[in-house]
Amino acid sequence: MARVTVEDCIDKVENRFELVLLGAHRARQVSQGAPITVDRDNDKNTVVALREIADETLSPGDLKEDLIHSLQKHVEVDEPEADLPALPQAEDAPVADALAEEAVAFDRMSEEELLAGIEGLVPPEKSDDF
Predict the structure, then answer these.
(1) Do residues 66 and 53 lie in contact, with contact meaning Cβ atoms separated by under 8 Å?
(2) Which helix (H) or strand (E) holds 31?
């Protein structure tokens, strides 16, 4: 019988469902060899995980962040943005209009140009790989 109950942990983690997720995640970490922060006392990994949460030897916030990180399949890396030109001031209004018109003109393509581009496409060569 487990010596720790949900009532011991519920004041540390406000949601029972979140407690289940955090406890299961921590139990998986322990089974993979993570060091435990309480005495094992011949308990199973799930009981050890709940005792760690109840004794507050691990922060529920840290466990939650670690759980989220472990579930992410694609982690975005913050890359520095390219230096953009400074926005023109009020006295530079004609320059701003020219920049905006230039950006819009870049996105425009006539129907003839589109058809000419499509006609110039060559189908890819077939290979045995696919």
Answers:
(1) no
(2) helix 16-31
